[in-house]
Amino acid sequence: MSASCTVRRPSWLLIAPFLAVLLLLSPVARADERNVAQAGDEIWDPLEPMNRYFFEVNRFLDAVALKPMATWYGALPQGVRTGTGNFLGNLRNPWTAINDGLQGEGNRAGTAVARFVINTLIGFFGVFDPAKEMGFVQHDEDAGQTFARWGAGDGPYLMLPVFGSSNGRDLVGLVTDAILDPFNLLTRGADANWASPARSGMTAVHYRDANRQQIEDVERSATDLYATVRRITADRRRSEIRNADPGSSTPSPRMTEHEGLGGSGPRAEVPR
Amino acid sequence: MIRRSFLVVVATAACLWAVPPASAQNPVPGATAFIDTLAKRAIEGLTSKDIDNADRAARFRTLFTETFDVPTIGRFALGTPWRTASEADRAEYLKAFEDFIVATYATRFADYGGEAIRTTGSRRGDDSEVFVTSEFVRAQGAPVRVAWRLRPTGDSWRIIDVIIEDVSMAITQRDDFSATIQRNGGRLSALIEALRSKTSTAGKS
């Protein structure tokens, strides 16, 4: 605890120029998006044995901690869970807005700002979501997505212990989020060092509950759960980076029987 | 107070900023109607609480094989091992694949809770293929984007892929199957065994 007091002041001083550099770079560094992987592209997994090991570690942690907590949480009334999800989502809005700005997405930044202001002021600190009724739908951005839009490739696929599916670029993004997310800056500044892990833990439990059925479906249908989870999480991420831009994001591998016919996807055609 | 009014100004500015979404396109209404009909048939025929699991599975199999191009999907999901497989192995695999899909998906219609597929438009792909875009509307949470990749067959269509929030089921299945084959010494028989084992456990739930 005492260490945080000494760190507090310098961290602000270090961060300000870093943010300024990011802001200065962003218009120049808008990526040639052809370099950015699309859903359906190959996933580079050079560390597969290590990743599979951590996948089993995470499956164990899920079984002994996350799933039981999510089951308990899932027994709460739907209204409480929806309010929790709204509240956690609202906390993400400022950092989302900043990242939208860094990606040159003015409209989306405006949506995130509007959501934060409306829901914080008249949505009881974000527990309710009146902004949605006004047409401002929640979306999330983070540093990893911004780096991707600036041209950073996926890097190697990574299965991180506790944090789960990631890649080289998103690992750097995760560290950046931890340092620069205004929520983390403010709570660190107020010496509330419990706040950031508490928020991450609540978010994990909330999403484990919200996706319970989908997780069960995947567990039931996969013959190799690691490979299936890798594909789903990597492609979801690639889709989020492109903001689900229709047309550019729907994977369409060649599935023709006759070689050379059509298909724009990166995968090989159906073998004869 | 100053801060509060500042925030209101920012919110108002953000409201003015927002742009209405482009209206949906539907150049191939026949394909959209095909998916509408499929969704209607699935809800009417598969979600009844009065039929048992065997009956539900049989009805699902009929609907699935009538509307999906199972051999094309199965061949794609298997990938390169298809080339070297014998005719008998191919047939055995396709049968195991179909049984596996029926067993893992049919039971899901038993706990139907009023979800609906709402088609939103269509888009032409390569080779006279068509993507029908739709939303899967749930009681809780945002609608899920589902795209149906269709191939024309004479007077109708066959589905060759279902893409959920940009995740292709065909590609996911292919990754899953090739990992199982690779981790079992490249043997197709290991995948067929795994599919059969999944089929029998899924049927029990």
Summed up, what is this model?
The complex is a heterodimer of chains A (272) and B (205). Chain A contains eleven helices and two strands, in the order ααααααββααααα.
Task: Describe this protein's structure.
The complex is a heterodimer of chains A (272) and B (205). Chain A is mainly α and 272 residues long. Chain A has one domain (2-40, 47-266). In chain A, 63% of the residues lie in helices and 3% in strands. Chain A has helices at residues 2-28, 48-74, 78-102, 106-122, 130-133, 143-149, 168-180, 182-189, 195-210, 212-221, 225-241, and strands at residues 157-160, 164-167. In chain A, strand 1 (157-160) and strand 2 (164-167) form a beta hairpin. Chain A is globular, with a radius of gyration of 20 Å. Mean pLDDT of chain A is 85; it is low at 1-10 and 258-269. Chain B is α+β, with helices and mostly antiparallel strands and 205 residues long. Chain B has a single domain (6-195), classed as Roll (Nuclear Transport Factor 2, Chain: A). Chain B has a five-stranded antiparallel beta sheet. In chain B, a hairpin with a 2-residue loop joins strand 4 (156-164) and strand 5 (167-168). The radius of gyration of chain B is 21 Å and the shape is globular. Classes of the chains: A mainly alpha (272), B alpha+beta (205). Chains A and B meet through helix 4, helix 10 and helix 11 of A and helix 1, helix 4, strand 3, strand 4 and strand 5 of B.
